Amino acid sequence: MTRMLILGSGPAGLSAAIYGARAGMRPIVVQGVQPGGQLTTTTDVENYPGFRDVIQGPWLMTEMQAQAEHVGTTMLWDTIVGVDLSRRPFRLTGDSGDVYEGEVLVVATGAQAKWLGLASEEALKGKGVSACATCDGFFYRGKKVAVIGGGNTAVEEALYLTNHSPSVTLIHRRDSFRAERILQERLFAHPGITVLWNKAVAEFVDGGGSAGLVGLDLEDTRTGERSRLDVDGAFVAIGHSPATEVFRGHLPLDADGYLSVEPGSTRTAVPGVFACGDVADKVYRQAVTAAGTGCMAALDAERFLAHAVFESDRAAAAEPAREKENAEATW
Question: Mean pLDDT score of the chain, rounded to an integer?
């Protein structure tokens, strides 16, 4: 039982915990299936404010957790499998069988990048294969890169990478994009981008040793013909999956499965439930923006509780007056 229950232990959840603990809400963080979030699978981090030199993602999350615990957060290893948001305190059940109750709930369960599912892809993650051009594009300055996908994300990432790379190849398994027309027009007009239609990645080629990714083995989706594309970096941009399944039917989701919040806040449709980080953000998806919305969620939660206490105290103060009026009316 806690005043503030937080699901998720990435930058959003831990930032909410730090602010919540400093406000005296003694938060409990249920860490979920991937403690520390996506940054624990990231090696070099060069764009998180406050660090002049490159830092490691797992180290950053270890430091965030230590800070949260230092100011009074309790960290618990569990995964939530059932929720009851019909009344406060909210009641959640873990797959351990433990039951958690919170006067407010902060959902920071994040989103996972979708991958192609190739063994070579898994082996080269962080060694030339990435799912975030904004995060890792800087490491490929002056090098050849490829983007895999055909939606808005893929086109946007290809356009972004032209800031760093003189040669960007966009690989799509079909002969047309799903991306918005205006993005396609910008893409086709850019001289630094080449599009390969009807091609699928059959394998990410490892150069061996410390070389990492050196190329892509491609397969034509119509003829089956194989070809090789030499690249230094590859960005898989086929979408993200927000971790919201347990809230389906309990909280409103948008068409892509992300939690819906009031514009300019972290408030969901259920009073006392707040959402932050990538579980509610399909636009920016950065560690620093996740941390920022985690702060917002804690502040929103603190104000919600303060208002609830004020209303409760006002109701309690008014009760004797109502009792007196009722007694006089009866007399």
Answer: 92
Q: Which of 78, 136, 278, 300 is catalytic?
A: 136
Quote the tokens at residue 68: 């949260």
| Catalytic status, residue 132 | yes
* Residue 23, both tokens: 């406000």
My answer on whether omega of the bond before 89 falls inside 30° of 0, hence cis, is yes
Q: How are beta strands 74-76 and 2-7 bridged, if at all?
A: unpaired
List all residues 6 or more positions away from 11 whose beta carbon is below 8 Å from its beta carbon: 37, 39, 61, 64, 277, 287, 288, 290, 291, 294
φ, ψ for residue 270, nearest 5 deg: -100, 115
pLDDT digits (tens, 9 = 90+) for 235-285: 999 988 999 999 999 999 999 999 999 999 999 999 999 999 999 998 888
CB 297 within 8 A of CB 275: yes
The pTM (predicted TM-score) of the whole model is: 0.78
If you average pLDDT over residues 133-143, what whole number do you get? 92
Catalytic residue among 44, 132, 206, 220: 132
CA dist 90 and 104 (Å) reads: 7
Strand partners for 200: 219
Residue 136 appears among annotated catalytic residues: yes
Angle between helices 287-330 and 11-22 (to 10 degrees): 40
295 is catalytic: no
CA dist., res. 17 & res. 7, Å (int): 10
| pLDDT(324) > 90 | no
Q: What is the dihedral of CA 41, 47, 50, 55, to 10 degrees?
A: 40
Above 80 in pLDDT, residue 321?
A: no
Q: Of 59, 76, 70, which Cα lies nearest the Cα of 9?
A: 76
Per-residue pLDDT reduced to its tens digit, 199-235:
999 999 999 888 899 999 999 999 999 999 999 999 9
The Cα 216–Cα 63 span in angstroms is 36
Give the three-state DSSP class for 3. Answer: strand
Asked whether 170 and 158 are in contact (CB, 8 A), the reply is: yes
Q: For residue 241, give both structure tokens.
A: 């999956």
pLDDT score, position 39: 84
Name the catalytic one among 84, 95, 98, 135.
Answer: 135
